[in-house]
Specification:
The protein is of the alpha+beta class and about 500 residues long. The chain has two domains: about 290 residues, Butyryl-CoA Dehydrogenase, subunit A, domain 2; about 180 residues, Butyryl-CoA Dehydrogenase, subunit A, domain 3 (Up-down Bundle), CATH 1.20.140.10. About 45% of the residues lie in helices and about 15% in strands. The protein is globular, with a radius of gyration of 24 Å.
């Protein structure tokens, strides 16, 4: 099945990269996507999805530019070919930093509005690969299908790297009646039959962000006590696999809007999909777990690199908030007001704290048995908890700095209207800028913090890769406090 993916690489013999056009063409594969209850003939037929695809495609094209070549590509040590850096397995501190620079790049390309850009899902695969010795020690619970989990994982990573594969990933199931275990279990992905060469699965996964705009989906279930063997499944499939149905949420961006009025939302979005698996065949070589509940318990560990990606993206986004805030002070002439200075200082504090969590997690990274370097989990968890706890406050603070500017936005056509434009020009100038220039930054901040798309992003940030209660639970159970307790006992002279 891996060989069915279109391999339209550029012609250089040592290069396994795809262009933006290659990427867009690869999505025209018969996938089943519903938007507003209507089945799309092609995913690009929806303007919001298509605009988002254009952003992703530009990342592929950037691989061939002098400005971004080093950030986005790397020479694979195994094949000696030039490949996308998205699938790089960082094994040294320097490689970890280089990989982080790619996260910073993809964040800036979308101003942080894509929570799962093209380099996010590969971190899940790399995380699974980092634990491949554990997968090698496990066996299928089904006599009729005995995949080699470890070899499948390693081959999939190689496939992704050499074919510039993009993917969605989803662990959680659809939201339903939480009071009923039976209702929760009903939406789990389950093996429904075993066939020669694979298994069939049915069920659904939720918040499949960017699934309609990528090549593949990596899937599993979040395990719980008593998870039945048929629900212990982990694997990956092409999005166009027969029986996969993608039902999109409503679109929130404004493709086609004037760049002045909506500099961000005009560029489309990553859409979230409910991914329905309707009797879908999973080939044997695409199965990473089949029937072993203990492997589901690894989900927190294998997502370490994804959580590092999330925190890095939020740190870069926080710096954009600082930049926006400073521009507002400049154009409004409010930088000399102590209360305003204090508000901007809060934005700076937030950005610096998130940056420190990222850097500290990298400095305290440890090597896995496979040689892959893993950022410190507890620092990532604490950093993500801090980031989502204060995110709403930071958004509110930036909006407060703008004053009436976010409310009184008139649009390019109003400024250019001969009957009223001259009034706006006379009444709305900023410090050293015209009223139209002042509105331009307000439009950007609106798109980033106040638009429908911005509100979706804020909701996404709050629950992405675990909400605050779950993060606190992880800190309580995973942070080793023995050394700290020992220090207190020694200083206080306590013996017990």
């Amino acid at each position: 099945m891996m060989e069915n993916m279109r391999r339209s690489h550029v012609t250089e013999p040592d290069c396994l990269l795809k262009t933006g056009q290659d990427f867009k063409a690869s999505l025209d594969d018969g996938r089943k996507v519903w938007v507003g209850g209507k089945l799309l003939a092609r995913v690009a037929d929806n303007p919001a999805l298509n605009a988002g695809i254009d952003i992703l495609a530009s990342m592929f094209d950037d691989q061939f530019t002098d400005e971004f070549r080093d950030v986005t590509t790397v020479r694979d040590p195994a094949s000696k070919k030039i490949v996308t850096r998205a699938w790089q397995e960082p094994k040294t501190y320097g490689e970890l930093i280089e990989r982080r620079k790619l996260i910073e790049y993809t964040t800036l390309k979308t101003a942080g509005t894509f929570g799962r850009p093209i380099d996010l899902a590969p971190t899940i695969a790399i995380g699974i690969g980092a634990h491949v010795p554990i997968f090698r020690s496990r066996r299928s619970a089904y006599d009729g299908c005995r995949p080699d989990f470890a070899e499948n994982i390693l081959r999939y990573i190689e496939y992704g790297r050499e074919n510039s594969i993009t993917a969605a990933e989803s662990l959680t199931g659809p939201q339903n009646d939480r009071s009923s275990p039976m209702a929760q279990a009903a939406s789990l992905l389950r093996v429904t039959s075993v066939e020669s060469g694979g298994v069939r699965i049915s069920g659904a996964k939720s918040v499949g962000s960017i699934a309609a705009q990528t090549h593949e989906v990596m899937f599993t279930n979040l395990g719980y006590k008593g998870t039945p063997p048929e629900a212990c499944i982990w694997g990956a499939l092409p999005i166009n696999a027969e029986g996969i149905k993608l039902v999109s949420r409503e679109m929130l961006s404004q493709p086609g809007a004037d760049p002045f009025d909506h500099p961000l939302t005009r560029r489309g979005e990553e859409a979230d999909q409910l991914i329905i698996f309707d009797n879908v065949f999973v080939p044997k070589d695409r199965i990473f777990n089949l029937g072993d509940p203990s492997l589901l318990e690894l989900s927190g560990k294998v997502t370490t690199w994804a959580h590092w990606h999330v925190l890095t993206r939020l740190a870069v986004k926080a710096e954009l908030f600082v930049g926006c805030g400073q521009i507002v002070l400049d154009v409004l002439g409010t930088g000399q007001i102590p209360a305003v200075q204090a508000m901007l200082a809060e934005l700076i504090e937030y950005a610096q704290v998130l940056k420190s969590f990222v850097i500290s997690a990298e400095v305290q990274a440890r090597h896995m048995e496979t040689g892959i370097l893993a950022p410190d989990t507890n620092l990532l968890t604490a950093g993500r908890l801090y980031s989502i706890r204060y995110y709403p406050h930071i958004i509110h603070t930036l909006q407060e700095l703008c004053g009436q500017g976010l409310v009184m936005r008139f649009g390019k056509s109003a400024f250019e209207n001969p009957d009223i434009g001259h009034h706006l020009a006379e009444l709305l100038p900023g410090r050293g800028v015209s009223g139209m220039q002042k509105e331009q930054i307000m439009n950007f901040i609106w798109d980033m913090t106040g638009s429908a798309l911005a509100n979706r992003v804020a909701l996404f940030e709050n629950v992405n890769a675990s909400p605050a209660p779950r993060l606190r639970d992880r800190l309580f159970h995973e942070f080793n406090r023995d050394e700290m307790v020992g220090k207190v006992k020694k200083i206080a002279g306590i013996e017990y």
